[in-house]
Specification:
The chain contains eleven helices and seven strands.
Length: 302
């Protein structure tokens, strides 16, 4: 008969029960181990340095082949960019410590708060989780943006983590990525306009643009193709920055946490002054200028 079916009449009985079950717990715990557990000693500590901004950058792997196979529009496919934005928003929905994200072409950078303790700041966990959610979301939302195109094979992305110790380092990183957006898109716009509008071959277009600076590419676009580069959509010229906002959404007018895609300059000070909570690690405040007709993604895990 179990001790629990007997009436415990003294403190000694209680001590005896406690001793027996403590002994059984220790025995079962020891039995749970195996001689193979030594392999855990091969794992190494990969925590990100404290008090640093954590940047996870994803890049499309073999995306030149992927875009060709799926016949993306050149030089930019707006649907593909919006799919990238939606996939990045899914990452931000899952991880509140991603304070903003910046994307262009087939890459996206996710900025985690410098005081984050996500996964105890383990690089491998953070990087693999963000990459898997982004990649899965890209496939999941494919039909939303490409209703007329079948996904022929799954895309893949490589990932890296870089730590930036100061706010200025972080701003310089994002400035670098946006400057890269401008340089690449200006070249690609001129390149594909020369092919589609002037009938040049790929090699001929490359020769025309070889060694030219930005002002010369702008002039070629305007004189040869009748294109004013400044009239190109901001999503192409500036990329997309995803920010968090706390807003009132009708009809309930209750406060909701949303993620908004912006196509603005992030090199100058105005963006950082408007969204000062990012660098200051502050909580979101109600955004009264938000308009419901703006594009946004509702965070359901608020």
């Amino acid at each position: 008969m179990s001790l629990f079916t007997k009436k415990l009449t003294s403190v000694r009985d209680w001590h005896r029960v406690l001793f027996i079950y403590t002994k059984e717990f220790r025995t079962s715990k020891a039995m749970a181990k195996s001689k193979y557990e030594y392999v855990r000693t091969f794992e190494f500590e990969d925590r990100c340095l404290q008090n640093c901004w954590i940047v996870v950058r994803l890049d499309g792997r073999s995306f030149h082949r992927f875009t060709s196979s799926h016949k993306f529009e050149k030089p930019n496919d707006k649907r593909a960019l919006e799919l990238m934005n939606r996939s990045a928003a899914a990452v931000m929905e899952e991880f509140r410590d991603v304070s903003l994200a910046y994307g262009q072409s087939d890459e996206y950078s996710f900025i985690l708060r410098k005081n984050t303790d996500l996964y105890n700041r383990r690089q491998s966990k953070i990087m693999s989780a963000i990459n898997s959610i982004f990649s899965a979301s890209y496939v999941y939302y494919w039909n939303t943006y490409f209703e007329d195109k079948k996904l022929l094979y799954p895309p893949s992305f490589d990932a890296r983590i870089v730590l930036y110790p100061t706010d200025q380092n972080l701003r310089d990183y994002l400035s670098w990525r946006q400057a890269d957006t401008h340089i690449n898109n200006l070249y690609n716009t001129a390149f594909w306009r020369l092919i589609s509008m002037k009938g040049l071959s790929n090699n001929e277009a490359e020769k025309v643009l070889s060694g030219t600076v930005s002002s010369e590419k702008n002039e070629i676009l305007f004189k040869e193709c009748g294109t004013n580069y400044n009239n190109e959509l901001p999503i192409y010229r500036k990329g997309t920055v995803l920010v968090r906002k706390l807003v009132n959404l009708p009809p309930s007018k209750s406060k909701k946490h949303v993620i908004c895609p912006l196509h603005v300059d992030i090199i100058g000070d105005s963006f950082w002054e408007e969204y000062n909570e990012i660098l200051n690690l502050k909580d979101l405040i109600l955004n009264k200028d938000f308009k419901p007709d703006n594009t946004f993604y509702l965070v359901k895990r608020s």
